[in-house]
Design brief:
elongated; 125 residues; mainly alpha; 4 helices; Four Helix Bundle (Hemerythrin (Met), subunit A)
């Protein structure tokens, strides 16, 4: 990243507060989803998937269902990691800086997608 202190965006305290709340809500939703799916939000542990019997006669259907549920778990874990990274950046004062070019990410983009890590130009490449 090519960021310099002058590249750090100056987001209003009101916007940062609002975005922090949105991120906290998204974090809680991801944790809830993981718990509902039988996954430990703090580790890679996943409980046996309810309703799937490994001895089930149609093992292909069981395998497909297990794969689908694991995909949901992976998606929720990725969202949780993104939220945690964004909150860390807020705490460090580097939130809103493009990870590719170091330019500030526009306020409108952050408002629309608080997990944005790239500016519009880099995201479009």
């Amino acid at each position: 990243m090519n960021s310099t202190p002058s590249d750090t965006p100056t987001l209003s305290p009101e916007l940062l507060t609002r975005l922090r709340k949105e991120l906290a809500d998204e974090r809680a939703a991801a944790i809830h989803e993981l718990e509902q799916l039988g996954a430990d939000p703090a580790s890679e542990k996943v409980a046996p998937i309810q309703g799937i019997d490994d001895n089930f006669a149609d093992s292909a259907a069981a395998t497909a269902e297990r794969g689908e549920q694991l995909a949901f778990i992976e998606n929720a874990r990725e969202r949780l990691a993104g939220v945690d990274a964004a909150l860390r950046k807020m705490d460090e004062g580097s939130y809103g800086v493009c990870e590719v070019c170091g330019a500030p990410i526009g306020e409108a983009r952050l408002e629309a997608r608080p997990l944005s890590v790239r500016c519009v130009n880099c995201a479009g490449k």
